[in-house]
Amino acid sequence: MTQNPLVSIVTPAYNAGRYIEETAASVLAQDYPNLEYIVVDDGSADDTAERLHRLDPRVRVVRQANAGEQRAVNRGVAEARGDLLAIVNADDPLLPGLVRCAVDHLTQHPELAGVYPEWLKIDGDGRVLEVVHLPDYDYARLLKRHLCDIGPGCLFRRSALDGAPPRDPRFRYSGDFQQWLRLGLHRPFARLPLVLATWRLHDAGTSQAGLSAALAADKVAMIEDLFARADLPPALRAMRAEALSAAHFAAAALALHHPAIPGRRHMWRSLRAKPRWDPPDLPERRRTWRLILFALGLPVTRPLIALNQRWRGSEIDRSALPGLHYAAWLTAVRPLEQAPQPVADRECVRLQAGTEPRIQ
After folding, report:
1. Quick one: what percent of the chain has pLDDT higher than 70?
2. Which of 76, 208, 258, 280 has CA atoms 20 to 30 A from the CA of 341?
3. What residues contact 2, with CB distance under 8 A and at least 6 apart?
C-alpha cells in the first residue's frame, strides 16, 4: 500500500437537507491529503439537491431516482476510485483525525479487511448523549449475539469486497451489518480505541423511522442468508442455532417499542432455536427472564415496559456531559476520555495526546 492511498468516502443522501452540509464539512475537514468524497442523492424530495449545489466543489454529487439506501451506497462505491472506502451516513458527521488514523493502521496491518473507531451518540441538535466504547473485534460475538459492533466511521479495503457490491439490497435495514459479516468471513477487522465518529439518534433517522415488522424480519432473514452460504467455515456453521436465536431475540426486543412487531413469535423462536446461550453473558445482549416475560406477555405487558423504560432512563450514565455539543466535547472531554493505550500508529498517538485539529 502506498503511503497516502486514495480514500473514497460515500454518503447516501435521501431527504438529508437538515444535516448534509454539516456532514460534508466534517469529511472535507479531515487531515488527509488524498481524499475523494461522493454524495449520492437518492431522489430526495426536500432541499437536499439545493444544499448539495452549494457544497464545496471537491464534493462529487451523483443523482439517481430513489432506489433505497443500499443501492445508493452501491452506486457510490461503483463510482469511487479509492482502494480504501468508507460509508458515512448523511446525518453522522465524522470527528477530526479519523481518516488518517484509520489509514495508518491499515497500512501497518495489511491482513485487515478494515478498521472501525469508537463513537459518540448524538441527538438531532448534535448534543452528546453517550460515549460508545467498544470491545476488540470478535466475529463470533457479532454473529452469536447479533451485535453490530462495526459502526460509524469504518474504513475498509475495496479488495475485501472480492468484486461484489458492498450492500445487498434485499436487506433494507440490515445492509450494513450483513456487509460486515460477509467481509469478516475471510479477513478480520480491528477496533481503533479512539472516539472518531458520531451516530445521530433522531426521529427521521433510518433506525427510528424504520422501526417496524419489516426491520425485525430483516434481522432474521440476514442471518438465514449468511448460513446458506457454501463458503461458510465449519466453525462458524456450528454457531447457526445461537445466531438465529440471537437474531430472533433482537427482533423481539424491538417489539417492546413497536406494537406492529410480533414480539411473542420472535421470542418463542429465539427460545426454540437455542434455549440456553453459551457463555459469556454479555451486558449488551442479555436474554434476561424479565425481557423474555415482557415479550411473551405482549400486548398485556406493554404498560409495564413503559414504566421499566422510565426507571432505567434514570440510570443512564451522564458522564458525557449531557447538553454538550460534540464539537465542544472534542475540546472539553476527548483529551480526558481517551487515556493512553498501546496504539503504535503515529496519528493515533497524536490524537491521544489531545492535539487534534478542532472543528471550526
Report:
1. 85
2. 280
3. none
The pairing of strands 114-122 and 155-157 is antiparallel
Q: Are residues 277 and 140 in the same domain?
A: no
Shared domain for 134 and 249, answered yes or no, is no
Enter the C-alpha cell of residue 19.
444535516
Neighbours of 310 (CB within 10 A): 9
Task: Give the rounded percent of residues in the chain with a pLDDT score beyond 90.
Answer: 71
Mapped to the 3 state alphabet, what secondary structure does 40-104 carry?
Answer: EEECCCCCHHHHHHCCCCCEEEEEECCCCHHHHHHHHHHHCCCCEEEECCCCCCECCCHHHHHHH
**Average pLDDT of 289-297?**
89
What's 114's domain CATH number?
Answer: 3.90.550.10
Q: Length of the chain in residues, anyone?
A: 360
The whole-angstrom separation of Cα 252 and Cα 265 is 8
pLDDT score, position 332: 78
Instruction: Looking at the structure, tell me whether residues 146 and 265 fall in a common domain.
Output: no
Query: Do both 111 and 225 map to the same domain?
Result: no
pLDDT exceeds cutoff 70 at 353: no
Q: Are residues 336 and 285 in the same domain?
A: no
Question: Which residue range is the domain that position 19 belongs to?
Answer: 7-206+324-352
Task: Tell me: pLDDT of 303 over 90.
Answer: no
In a domain, 358, yes or no: no
Looking at residue 212, what is its pLDDT? 81
190 and 276 fall within a common domain: no
- This prediction's pTM: 0.88
State the first-to-last Cα distance of the chain, in angstroms, to the nearest integer. 32
